[in-house]
Amino acid sequence: MRTTWGLATDRGRVREINEDAILAQPPIFLVADGMGGYDAGDRASQIVVDSFRTLAEQGSVSTAEVHSQFELATAQLREMLETEKRAGSTVAGAAVVNQDGVDYWLIFNIGDSRVYSWHEGRLKQISVDHSVVQELIEAGVINDSQAAHHPQRHQVTRALATHVAPDPDYWLIPFHAATRILICSDGLTNEVADPEIARTLQTHEDAQDAADSLIASALSAGGRDNVSVVVVDLLPRHDGGNGERSTTNGVAATANTALKNQFEGSTIPRRFGRKT
Q1: What's the number of domains the chain is made of?
Q2: Is residue 276 included in any domain, yes or no?
């Protein structure tokens, strides 16, 4: 298999800066949504990207290696942002891992940025939001419709932050069950409903076209937050080579504030150290 991808980010129509950062450099793809305001949130998300970039250009990675980057990013947040007590970032992503000679998607998240799979015409949210409204939904206090307008809908219950140890969730997804992956910040999902996201992924075969269209939809809906997306496709290899082809002409792409302009089976999260 080979990967092809598209990525896009925008500060939106309201925010003055873009606190999102994105990384698309096989075998690692992720979106980080910084928290902490000017000169803190954008630095926090970039620290995440810089930490995970060390995994780039490997054939695959392990869960332990991914978790180590969460720990490294946390340590760097503490070192570089020690005066910004509230600085942090949500992180969502996908990495290629190999277990017993079989490749899988390792899906990971902490916070309310999301990872979806698109497979055989079905959109499925793989990650589970770490948020107040998600806990209220799971407790049966509110439904999905009420969550969209709840006053605490932006409050996360977990994040990569300076004052706590990282506690991400992990899932292993067979390649054949998720041939397209969407990773996005909440700037997309707060503006664009899942059915419209599904239609966009259905309509645009090219990953970059899909990413651009999703950003445009979020901006048209109001663009009240920074919005970032990474769309990754798995394609059969016909060239006999070993490298990945990207829709960005083979250049590993990252973005930060400079870019202002259903599979079948369980999705129970696995914490690091649990048997998967």
Answers
A1: 1
A2: no
